[in-house]
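Notes to self after the call with IL:
- keep both proteins in one doc
- input above output, always
- annotate only the second one for now

Protein 1:
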Amino acid sequence: MLAVVGLIVVGKVAVDTSVAFLSAVRIFLLSKLRSLSNFKERYGPWAIVTGATDGIGKEYARELARLGVNIILMSRSIDKLTKVAQEIEAEFHVETQVVQVDFSGGRSIFDKIAEAIRGKEIGMLVNNVGVMYEMPMELCELSQDVIWQHVNINMGSLTMMCWLVLPQMLQRRRGAIVNLSSSSSVGPLPYMNIYSASKIYVDYFSRALSHEVRNSGVTVQTLIPFYIATNLTKFSDFIGRQSVLVPNAQTFVRSALSTLGICDRTTGYWSHELQLFSCNVVPTWFWIRFGGMMQQFLRRDALKKRK
């Protein structure tokens, strides 16, 4: 009996590994073989990128502009928005529009956003804006402001932005929405509990929305990246420096953008896909325990860096 059980377990692991490998080859090999030259015609002339002044958001804005798409940049700092818009217009010769908005403001900000994008044919929405702890912390160390930022920015803004732009996409039967989740959504993550919970919301919401709009001509993609060398990870040298496992924002975005239309749920980057597979084969109790240890290590690294 034990031998039979062992064979079943080994067989399941072998099948899962084979499926994951073939899936990764399909996603990342096919994405390199196709051209994105018709991107504007396929999705539409304008793209909205939230959190567009740094990191992943800025690189999405630049890469979409490189494809000839006009960009609506949304973020909190008008100085940074203006600078990025000017850089994009000068380099890629597309139109830009800036919308200064603090996504922690809750419901009241979306009337302003709706008015700002009125009359624009939005072909793509990149819901990138997000917040994360300044370093791993226990719940009681967090301020109320940080807690509500995770609710309003990581969950509320993403949902409302989809609600604002999706009707026109469905009417035209073309468009794409990219929602940034995180590897922290793989399982409960101690010392990043609110952040982790907000990102599983993004994952579940996006997957359900993708099913709702199937066969409509609109694509909804969930990205589940692991660590990327951006301002959000600079608190630790361990995860804030570029490496094979930690790409910079430009490398990640170019890879992730090429998977749009090929896969509706992906990490966006080949080494992150391997990390996701490894995480999915371990039991939840191991993920929680190992994840907690990892976050404690990153906390110590952050505190050391502050000295």
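Protein 2 (the one to annotate):
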Amino acid sequence: MDRRRFLLTVFGGGAALAVSSVTAIRLLGPGGKRNGVMTAAAPVATPAQDLLLECFSDDDGHQLGPCHVTKLVLTDAQWHLRLSDVAFTVMRRDGTEVAFTGAHEKPRSKGLYRCAGCSTALFDAATQFDSGTGWPSFWQPIAKQNVIESRDSSFGMIRTAINCAGCDSHLGHVFDDGPAPTGLRYCMNSVAMEFVAFRVS
């Protein structure tokens, strides 16, 4: 099959691949040569990743226990539809919002923060404090398994990046200059989170 017929088949729907809404489609590495002509790699289905996260109630924040969640995997185009431009830059390109511009810089009421991309529970407002940095800060996540820590060596610094376990979106960084009882400061980007006020006080 020549390149033109291959592209028409794939993108024209002639060889549609049935996959669930939570299964990612990716192209494997570079294609090979056939009769001296480069050919594109075939699309394959990547099995959806099942996660065991901690779930929490929006009513009063009580822990519902472990729950099985399918990791949210989207294309850049789909993320652009779901997120604002600023949120896309922060969450999908490891960016940082301008200090003192976010909506969640200081605690206002009882509630919890969920990922703006996939609604995974991230932080309880009871652990939030005013760090004076211009970004919402917490002394611990709502559940360790709901966030992912990784080494970040960008900008000539060594930091610990924090991502959402439910969709791999970048949230911010954690530092060791926070208050008791943990001594940690989870410095998050407001645009990466949505605040949910408890329905029951």
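Annotation: The longest strand covers residues 63-70. The helical segments are 3-11, 76-82, 85-93.
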